[in-house]
Amino acid sequence: MNSQYLVDLDQHIREWLHTLDETIPQLIAQMHTSTKKDRFDLVTNVDQTIQEQFETFLAQHYPEHQLFAEEKSNDNVDARHGHTWMMDPIDGTMNLVKQQEDYCVILAYFVDGEPMLSYIYDYPHRHLYHAMKGQGAFKDGKTLKSPEVLPLQDAILSFGAQFVDNETLRDLFEASFSHRIIGSCGLDSIRVITGQFGAHFNTNPKPWDIAAQFLFAQELGLKMTSLTGDILDFTKAGPFIISNPGCHEAVLEVLQRNGGYEKR
To answer: So where does Mg(2+) 2 get bound (predicted)?
Structure first.
């Protein structure tokens, strides 16, 4: 890929993301909520409108690009070939609805299955994290350093405790320094990316929940795998971990101990 094309595209996407600074408050002021699978699976006009606006942006400026996203059917998207954007228009919708805090926009750009650009926009705090292949990762335009190597006993772990069996939960608590959960896969991952957390794992993420994390992990020397240590398919996702290299194997060992982490 032409490097200048990537630089120009990155600039254009960051400009589009900042248009949300005006859009989101207007949408929240008129926010209405509905459910999908159950009462905990929420969707709002904020999610839907942001995604629609990005679709329009792509159609106007990059019609050859395709969108694989949460609030649409992706049956006709061949994400492994060509120019593909993965999007979660609001990651942490429950937080948006209940708190108006701790949510973000996730965007990731792949070319023939290779991550090239990634964005996690922490809108409530106006912090934009982005990464460019071969150029590093950034917070508000300032270069992020790779986190210091962190052993498990010194690491804060981030995960949904309700999805882990009691024995594994006890072992994780005993092996690590502490436990936190923000409730947004993107923002929990950002804490790993910036070195605040040792690892974040999610037992049932969707592709758009983890799409941006691939490139951040590559650029910063983090580990990102399935919960059995295997390579992840970015089009299917599934149980995943993003981790400081110093505690990745130790966390996986605890998760696979005594027959695995899943509740039986």
So the answer is: 90
Handedness of CA 114, 235, 213, 15 (dihedral sign): positive
- Determine if residue 219 is labeled as part of a ligand binding site: no
The residue whose two tokens read 């792949």 is 110
pLDDT above 60 for 7: yes
Q: How many CB atoms lie within 10 A of CB 137?
A: 22
Distance, CA of 202 to CA of 185 (rounded, Å): 8
Question: Where does the pLDDT of residue 36 fall: very low under 50, low under 70, confident under 90, or very high at 90 and above?
Answer: low
Determine whether the annotation assigns residue 230 to a binding site: no
Rounded to an integer, what distance in angstroms lies between the CA atom of residue 191 and that of residue 241?
13
88 known ligand binder: yes
Mention every residue, 6+ apart, whose C-beta is less than 8 A from residue 64.
82, 83
The kind and range of the H/E element at 57 are helix 45-61
Tell whether 91 is in a known binding site: yes
